[in-house]
Amino acid sequence: MFRRFIHLHAFLACGSLALACGSAESAAPPGSPVAALADDIALPPDTRTVEATVPRRSTLASLLAHHGLADESVVLIEEVRAVFNPRRLRVGHPYRLVFDRDGELRRLEYHVDNDQFLRVSNAVQGYAAALVPYVKERGEVAMRGQIDEANNSLVAAIDAGGESVMLAIEMAEIFSGEIDFNNDLRRGDHFEVLFEKVYREDQFSGYGDVLASEFVNDGRRLQAFRFHVPGESEAQYFDENGRSMKRLFLRSPFRFEPRVTSRFSYRRLHPVLGGVRPHLGVDYGAPTGTPVIVVANGTVVSAGMSGGSGNMVRIRHTNGYETYYLHLSAFAKGMRRGARVTQGQTIGRVGSTGLATGPHLDYRMRKSGAFVNPLLEHRKLPPGDPVPEEHREAFQAVRDSALGRLLSATVSAPAPVSAQ
Fold first, then answer.
1. What count of other Cβ atoms lies within 10 Å of the Cβ of residue 100?
2. What is the C-alpha separation between 64 and 418, in angstroms, rounded?
3. Which one is predicted more confidently, 46 or 318?
4. What is the pLDDT of residue 276?
5. CA separation for the pair 77, 61 (Å, rounded)
6. Where is average pLDDT lowest: 237-246, 263-272, 297-306?
């Protein structure tokens, strides 16, 4: 975690002693006691370093006391408070303590997050605390993958290419308006993707932006390019013609590959009450605690217990649409009547409250007062706004450059091999 921190004092001290010993040895005649002793001198280290991770139920004060620094903790913690809240100490985060040869603390380093670490130095005038940004580097990488018998999901295909599920989630979100990754994938589908990898202290830290991607799904070729429209708060993804990849509604209230366990129907055998009853939504099976996201911008109509529906969030959208999220185990912070939510925001977590036989989400959509099948309705919804005409030329330049880098990076890569 902290590989690049260099113990300069130890290096200088050992270097000086080594020079002194070398001088003594060169001045002594061969075979003399001085020359013999010179080979046996062991240089004591100038510092002692302790590296560990924060244990459970620890505070900064208890951590310092554990390392014999109880007497100094009050002064040190007061300095830390100026730049970092000690209550944000997290279990499992790495830290480092550097002591001098007399046992006095010279430096404390604590990993705050992927962007910065806390450093407390012991100077002549006392302790000084600072939040220090990590030095990060971004590298551009391209890969290709294929859906086949062995890799029958996007996650598996990405994994086979040596990358992680987080890249698969990014790609699924980009193409979520066009591909249902739970139901639409076909054997022989293939993709190419140009993306960034972030390195911190020479170690992989995470993924940056997906810059361009091409996905061939059931013979249909889809392309997506990242472009920041001037004046917009964040970059978006557009197809090769500048049309938005994002639709008014997401295909599902999950970030990736939900499993449909029961579909919209006017005649379904109820699993708890028995008898044939309408099921005016889509059930998605998922483990308890799985984040549930809102499919479009809107306003919370209600969030609370609702009889057999269990914990439910109801959200009103534009154009007469409302969506319902049933059987939640918990609500996200801020879920209350009148709250504004944005597409992709977490609104709760999967559960089995109300009349449910197991953890799942019952997702419903209503248009102009009547419930509709979300899976079918999504196909009728228009995409988001395209690239404005005045920025079309800039977009085309970004598109062509990204596509050229994608093709040149993958043309020499070996083609994916289908399982026999």
1. 16
2. 56
3. 318
4. 59
5. 8
6. 263-272
- What are the pLDDT digits (tens) for 49-95? 999 999 999 999 999 999 999 988 899 999 999 999 999 999 999 99
244-263 burial, b at 16+ Cβ within 10 Å, e below that, comes to bbbbbbbbbbbbbbbeeeee
For 328-362, the pLDDT digits (tens) are 999 999 999 999 998 889 999 999 999 888 899 99
Q: Are 47 and 8 in contact (CB under 8 A)?
A: no
| pLDDT at 12 (0 to 100) | 34
Q: Which sign does the torsion angle of CA 249, 255, 257, 259 carry? A: negative
Please give the structure tokens belonging to residue 267.
């005649």
Q: Which residue has the higher pLDDT, 277 or 35?
A: 277
User: Does this model's pTM top 0.85?
Assistant: no
Please, which residues have CB within 8 angstroms of residue 260's CB and are 6 or more apart in sequence?
182, 183, 282, 283, 284, 285
379: buried, middle or exposed (CB in 10 Å: 19+, 13-18, 0-12)? exposed
Q: Residue 47's pLDDT is what?
A: 83
Highest mean pLDDT among 1-5, 111-115, 295-299, 310-314: 310-314
